[in-house]
Amino acid sequence: MNKKFIPFIVLCVVISIIPSVGMIFFPTTTSTENTALQETPRIVNDDGSLNRLFFQDCGEYFNDHIALRNQMIFVDAKIQTKLFGESNISGVIYGKNDWLYYSSTLDDYAGRNKLSERELFNLAYNLSIVQDYLKKQDITFVFTVPANKNTLYGENMPYYYVASDIEEHNAKRLEKHLEKKNINYISMFDLFEGESEVLYQLRDSHWNTKGACLAYNSIMDFFNISHNDYSDSEPVVKKNDNGDLNKMLYSFYGELENDYIYPTPGNYNFTDSDANVEDGWLVTENKDGKNTLLMFRDSFADTLIDFMSSEFKTAYYSKAQPNQLEKCIEDDKPDYVVIEKVERNITDYLYNPPIITPASAELPNNILVKDTDTSVTVENCYYDANYFTISGEVDEVAISENSEIYVSINDSVYRAYHTSENGFTVYFKKSDLKGEKIEIRVYTVTDDKCIQTSFDTINLPK
Question: Measured between alpha carbons, how far is residue 266 from residues 38, 200, 210, 305 in Å?
Fold first, then answer.
């Protein structure tokens, strides 16, 4: 072997073993990903049995804790983006001018996997059930949908992704159904499209704080609540934002970008001293505020909390899905309820609608009884042990685009949530259903034409 190659070989060997040997002295202990790092592998499980996945666990532990992992991710990401204009992370799209986008928004952006008109009808119908439930308790409600970043600012998306017309996006198509059902709704699409300034971060999937202020004002104006709108305040610009997409792509070493800091009064406190705006459940108290707010939200509301909590005496923020609405109403007694859900996740209210006792209803006088393949199941509710979940699917022969589904329990009729194309779900408190069995009938109503699609006697789960 030519001796001049020996230093190169030694260098390669040293570089390759540093991440492994380095784990002894400086293992990776933090990650930008939304998963916990693999724990130290164990040969024996807690019950004394042999861990058959020991070697698999070792591999995952090594992948998570290898020394310099985050630094290597950063270097690789820089090479990929600067030389090839590509992201090395599947969840992040690298666009023009260093803009980053969330990959899960591609279906909306490209107009793929669109909801059917029936599914859009069902989604709006579910929200009408929620709104009617709250109205009966004198609670003011509003639903709002922040747009995906590339819906508003798609000009920096890579050229090989072709945008669909915004009017063809599921959330925009939903708006006409919300209007027909008279749902209290704030269109963030219209609100943000009316602004000439870019109000989303370049390397984050969310709006910036100025965008959050705009959304906050629209909600408070809808509620007709007098509030500080910060129109006379000049926010301070500070380079302090490390966006979610920035961290996903560049680990902890991506460049920070500017955001706005508003002179909010800071007159509220979290009831939990260790609270973080990203937590799934938050409560704030403000001795200077008025009324009580309950907001079911996602990460877009992280920057809303400072604004909203500065105005309300008590504010509750929940990320739980499905929303445990009835429990929150009974426990917290809010005056106002907001449901905020980003465009890419609006189907959460189609497949996992809020947990409430269904409203009673009446059926048309003339009911046609049909023998169909409608299915019904009764289960303990997975999300709240105090409820039963009654669900199933209506035979397609008894349903059309605008059919409503009702369920009768022991001869009392209730509105059912609509799920997917022809599914249905109702939640019942276990304390409200007596005995060991219940009689269930399922009906569809289409333009005053009522069909009984099934009749079952079902044992209640233990």
Answer: 38, 24, 17, 11
